[in-house]
Amino acid sequence: MTIRINVNGAEHVVDAEPDTPLLYVLRGDLRLNGAKYGCGLGQCGACTVQLDGKAIFSCVTPLAAVGTRKVRTIEGLGSVDRMNALQSAFAAEQAAQCGYCSAGMIMRAQALLDAIPQPDEAQIRRHMQTNLCRCGTHMRILRAVLRAAGLPVDGHSA
Ligand code: FES
Ligand code: FES
């Protein structure tokens, strides 16, 4: 069946079953490959995108649950040439190794910064705990979020 979906400010009509995971539609139909398939079970965060500004796991979010809400993916934040502040902070702090978790990390962190522009460290840690990095760059990611929030990064070694 055909279903309408709003992604990064643009309306799309996709031909998919209502129970199709949003992640599959983003990657397979819309060719937005930033969000990654990790566990497929809502346990790693690699697939994180935003739904009306809230970070969600797109691997366990059926298309039918999206409705008229607005989907935002890493492609809607910025590009290699025009990174937003958080993407720039990730680059500056070299907060990636293989990069598989990065889009999900950034989308989850951006949701926090949009709601609370200057969160404290405890808020950042709590908010980010659902997303895993198998390369162990969590401290660099913490530094990047602190940097993007304009908070001191000293004392947080990579
Ligand atoms: S792929 Fe969605 S949480 Fe792991
Ligand atoms: S940088 Fe490799 S999983 Fe995070």
TrEMBL record:
InterPro entries, alphabetized: 2Fe-2S-bd, 2Fe-2S-bd_dom_sf, 2Fe-2S_ferredoxin-like_sf, 2Fe-2S_ferredoxin-type, 2Fe2S_fd_BS, Beta-grasp_dom_sf, Diverse_Oxidoreductases
Presence of the UniProt keyword Repressor in the record: no
Gene Ontology MF terms in the entry: 2 iron, 2 sulfur cluster binding; metal ion binding; oxidoreductase activity
Stretches assigned to the 2Fe-2S ferredoxin-type domain: 1-77
Keywords annotated in UniProt: 2Fe-2S, Iron, Iron-sulfur, Metal-binding, Oxidoreductase
The keyword Transmembrane belongs to this UniProt entry's keyword annotation: no
PANTHER family per record: BLR6046 PROTEIN (PTHR44379:SF6), OXIDOREDUCTASE WITH IRON-SULFUR SUBUNIT (PTHR44379)
Protein name, as recorded: (2Fe-2S)-binding protein
